[in-house]
Amino acid sequence: MQMTLKVPKIHCDGCVNTVETAVKKLDGIQNVSASELSKEVRVEYDPEKVKEDQIRKALLLVGYPPA
Ligand SMILES: [Cu+2]
């Protein structure tokens, strides 16, 4: 399954790293790529193992609340 989250606080490479690392740590994440240009995070995940809610929470915990 794939989703794209808008994360307005992404503004540089450091943010991209922080966001990608936080999401990758979760179980069931197949791929994650954040963009500082579009301020979007694209996540591919296994919905049997991880829920959208957990992904949103992981972003919130590192200081990047999804819009
Ligand atoms: Cu930054």
Description of the structure:
It is built from two helices and three strands, in the order βαββα. The chain is α+β, with helices and mostly antiparallel strands and 67 residues long. The chain has one domain: Alpha-Beta Plaits, CATH 3.30.70. Strands 1-3-2 form a three-stranded antiparallel sheet. Copper (II) ion is lined by residues 11-12, 14-15. Copper (II) ion (CU) binds next to helix 1.
Radius of gyration: 11 Å
Indicate the low-confidence ranges by residue numbers: none
- Shape summary: globular
Question: What's the number of helices?
Answer: 2
Task: List the keywords.
single chain, 67 residues, Alpha-Beta Plaits, 3 strands, globular, binds copper (II) ion
In short:
The protein has two helices and three strands.
Helix and strand layout, with pairings?
Blueprint (H helix, E strand, L loop, with lengths): L1 E5 L6 H12 L4 E7 L4 E6 L6 H10 L6
Antiparallel strand pairs: 1-3, 2-3
The structure holds copper (II) ion.
